[in-house]
């Protein structure tokens, strides 16, 4: 019987047309399949735990594939990394049960959207976070986010291009974490800032959402809407109305892709195989 | 009288031939002077607080220049950022006394060299840290570093190409900070690792050195030597002998440039103007 191998990968999506193969080429899937071909001599098709759009990143994404190769599981990581470009990395590899399917078996997915509200962009993180020039009201954003938790019809938070038969999804967690990071700022400027933007803060905001599945553009629309909450354009309690309207035009704009990272995918009891150190 | 303006900049050095202008072009200085020309119409020469080699980064570096322009200090940041590529950022700008000189007035400089000892490289930090495939003995490195603190002749830790009349410099501080960062690792692999590399750890190591000045390649040779200490190739107490030998061939190799970042430059009482938030 052919073996079922699962690899956990990460990638910098900046230079790719997303994860999934498409006519235009230059996708993460293409690079993985090229590496597998040179390693095994087999034309292998891989299955990712999800699609990511052009410019979106992944910190930890599971991918599985079938192979006749006898390479021990412990050797796949190094062998594939030697054949992959340096913006894609295989973190680990292991053999999985025959019925394991990276997308269908997944129980929870977590995405992170990062917003830099410092005065200036961070040259070292510029490809992985959106630079929002003005401060945001983090408490209002936290409050707004709570209305999205639970099982809902997320039609207001998906692209009209979505072809899914149902827009009902469950959001298990939605939280904001803030981070202070280098920004040169005189006391005088900080005071002017506090006066000009009352109740708003500078710094880095990481928005984490965990759910059983996400619709097309869903996290980016949540991020774009939360930025309007943080700007004071949408009241936090208004998020429920937007959700109930099931109308994309009621939510905020779709945030740019480069701030988004597929953070983690969980498989419940199916894959208790790896620790994240 | 012409004004003396100081700007604090940061840059991702990956795509540049270092800070300082040179015949081959494509330096950070060139980009700054181009931006100043389009902004002021003046051919301005800037002075950096130090030179960085090709591929080396700067988180915070002071640069000063003279101008006849009447642009208020508070406007320089935004105006220059609009004219600079996105891998160079101006953090702040202010008018300084006529005798301020970004290099000569500097009292202390801090560099950071980052070593990633995780099993796999980090795709998001790959341009800013050196990936050392095996674990290192952090305590031995800490011990070795202590021997470098103080006033010494650093001839063993500079390139033979150095043309400085004196190799005596003072290192005020030298310390290691460790950071745990995502690495997928099974318990079985962690155990095998502990057996294979006793006394050594995985994770991220940030090596910070603060001194009154640094010789050509000095921080990169310190980093390369400390990695050999961490590997167990050089005993920590042997660092004193290497220093006393005043012989470049006794120290370890020059670590690759991309792990190095000019972290901060201090001007004592001269520039108590900015807070780092």
TrEMBL record, chains A, B:
Keyword Chloroplast annotated: no
Molecular-function GO terms, alphabetical: RNA binding; tRNA pseudouridine(38-40) synthase activity
Enzymatic class: isomerase
Active site feature: 53
Domain of life the protein comes from: Bacteria
Known catalytic reactions: uridine(38/39/40) in tRNA = pseudouridine(38/39/40) in tRNA
EC code(s) of this entry: 5.4.99.12
InterPro entries: PsdUridine_synth_cat_dom_sf, PsdUridine_synth_TruA, PsdUridine_synth_TruA_a/b_dom, PsdUridine_synth_TruA_C, TruA/RsuA/RluB/E/F_N
Location of the Pseudouridine synthase I TruA alpha/beta domain: 10-103, 146-267
GO biological process, one term: tRNA pseudouridine synthesis
Keyword annotations from UniProtKB, A to Z: Isomerase, tRNA processing
Record: residues binding substrate: 111
Functional summary from the UniProt entry: Formation of pseudouridine at positions 38, 39 and 40 in the anticodon stem and loop of transfer RNAs.
UniProt cross-references to PANTHER family, sorted A to Z: PSEUDOURIDYLATE SYNTHASE, TRNA PSEUDOURIDINE SYNTHASE-LIKE 1
Assembly description: Homodimer.
Family: Belongs to the tRNA pseudouridine synthase TruA family.
Name of the protein in question: tRNA pseudouridine synthase A
Lineage: Bacteria, Bacillati, Bacillota, Bacilli, Bacillales
């Amino acid at each position: 019987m052919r073996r079922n191998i699962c690899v956990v990968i990460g990638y910098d999506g900046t230079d790719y047309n997303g994860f999934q193969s498409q006519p235009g080429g230059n996708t993460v899937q293409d690079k993985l399949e090229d590496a597998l071909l040179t390693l095994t001599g087999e034309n292998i098709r891989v299955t990712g735990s999800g699609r990511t759009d052009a410019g979106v990143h992944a910190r930890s994404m599971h991918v599985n594939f079938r192979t006749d190769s006898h390479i021990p599981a412990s050797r796949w990581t190094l062998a594939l990394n030697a054949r992959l470009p340096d913006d894609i990395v295989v973190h680990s590899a292991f053999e999985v049960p025959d019925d394991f399917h990276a997308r269908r078996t997944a129980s929870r997915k977590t995405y992170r959207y990062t917003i830099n509200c410092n005065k200036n962009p961070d040259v070292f993180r510029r490809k992985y976070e959106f630079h929002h020039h003005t401060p945001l009201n983090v408490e209002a954003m936290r409050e707004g986010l709570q209305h999205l938790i639970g099982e809902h019809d997320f039609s207001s938070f998906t692209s009209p291009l979505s072809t899914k038969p149902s827009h009902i999804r469950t959001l298990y967690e939605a939280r904001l974490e803030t981070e202070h990071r280098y920004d040169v700022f005189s006391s005088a400027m900080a005071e002017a800032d506090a006066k000009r933007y009352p109740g708003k803060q500078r710094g880095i905001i990481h928005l984490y959402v965990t759910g059983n599945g996400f619709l097309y553009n869903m996290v980016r629309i949540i991020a774009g809407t939360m930025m309007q909450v943080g700007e004071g354009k949408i009241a936090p309690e208004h998020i429920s109305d937007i959700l109930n309207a099931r109308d994309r035009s009621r939510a905020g704009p779709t945030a740019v892709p480069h701030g988004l990272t597929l953070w983690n995918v969980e498989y419940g009891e199916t894959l208790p195989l790896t620790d994240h150190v």
